[in-house]
Design goal:
Blueprint (H helix, E strand, L loop, with lengths): L1 E2 L4 E8 L2 E6 L5 H14 L6 H9 L9
Antiparallel strand pairs: 1-2, 2-3
Length: 66
C-alpha cells in the first residue's frame, strides 16, 4: 500500500501463521522488501498488480509472463 502524496509504503506479508506489517519508515525496509520480493519470485507466488507496481517503484523488475 502506498500513500503517493506522503511518499511512504506499507508492506504486509501473509503466511499460514499470520501476517507481518512493515512501514517504509522502518530502518532496513528496502532489504525487507528485497528479500520478500526474491522469496516470492523463487517460490513462484503470484503477486497482485498493486504489488508488482509497488515493487517496481522500489526498483525491482516485474516478473516475466509465462
Amino acid at each position: 500500500k502506498r500513500d503517493r502524496s506522503q511518499g511512504w509504503m506499507q508492506m504486509v506479508l501473509r503466511g499460514p501463521r499470520g501476517k507481518l506489517r512493515f512501514d517504509s519508515t522502518l530502518d532496513g525496509f528496502p532489504e525487507v522488501a528485497r528479500r520478500a520480493y526474491l522469496t516470492a519470485r523463487a517460490k513462484g507466488l503470484e503477486l497482485t498488480e498493486a504489488s508488482v507496481t509497488n515493487f517496481a517503484a522500489l526498483g525491482f523488475e516485474p516478473p516475466k509472463a509465462p
